[in-house]
Amino acid sequence: MIRIGQYNTLEVVKTVEFGVFLDGGEDFGNILLPKACVPSGTELGDKIEAFIYFDSNDEIIATTKQPLAVVGDFALLRVVGICGIGAFVDWGLEKDLLVPFSEQRRRLEVGQDIMVRVYTDKASGRIVGSTKFNRFLDKTPANYKVGQEVQVMIAESSDLGFKAIIEEQHWGLLFRTESFGKLFPGKKLKAYIKEIRPDGKINLSLQKAGRAKVDDLADKVLTTLARKGGFLPLSDKSSPEEIFKEFRTSKATFKKTIGGLYKQGMIVIERDGIRLNDN
């Protein structure tokens, strides 16, 4: 069955001067793949992976170009136009994606980079975008465990910190005190479940809890030292940015880790960095 707004592997059933037609089955018939998107050497009977969507004439069409998001995805997209029914965002295809006014939490402006959820409108069957995420998230019970590693995408910042989308299913909050490095809407990274509150809301952390994060970082520090000739120009005097760039961790955790390695006699702390203890 053809999935609109997704990649489909379809058979070439007809060649014409302006492209090839792919077999869309009984529901959709033959679907045009324009000549510019046809892989070199394509013949009848070949199977091509193509993205299926609606062109500017609202006709079903195929493309081998890769959109910035497919149906079901959240993505950071740029507003490129405004019309009488909404805003258009660039999602990497010839036809821009419409975000109707009814799907905007606040009015969008040309040039903005915004987080969008791509979905299929049930009434029209068309692919559209939305910035109203609440109706797409927290629809299923959160079965995470404290300490579990999850994939998140930063959605927006707030006074408390950063709202993040967990596994494309649930809301999570990353407090500013738990944040380090450059965080911005659209950034994807791994995080850990810090707390599941009685009201069901989820707090996140970018580091493993307690001793586990120190032990994990200690292994990384020793491995990195060995790989770089036994010396790193990092110490407790280094900036948080320098430490994050190398180890993706906070300065506080780094200081605690190298302090532990020093007490164990694993490293020597010098004025301009840390060195493996050859003894």
Automatic annotation (TrEMBL):
Question: Where does the record place the S1 motif domain?
Answer: 3-65, 70-132, 145-207
The GO molecular function terms of this record are: nucleic acid binding
Q: Which Gene3D superfamilies match?
A: Nucleic acid-binding proteins (2.40.50.140), Winged helix-like DNA-binding domain superfamily/Winged helix DNA-binding domain (1.10.10.10)
Q: Which Pfam families match?
A: S1_2, WHD_CvfB
The lineage's top-level taxon is Bacteria
What InterPro entries has UniProt attached to this entry?
Answer: CvfB_fam (IPR014464), CvfB_S1_st (IPR039566), CvfB_WH (IPR040764), NA-bd_OB-fold (IPR012340), S1_domain (IPR003029), WH-like_DNA-bd_sf (IPR036388)
Instruction: Give the family this protein belongs to, as stated in its UniProt record.
Output: Belongs to the CvfB family.
Provide the protein name: GntR family transcriptional regulator
Q: Give the originating organism.
A: Photobacterium aphoticum
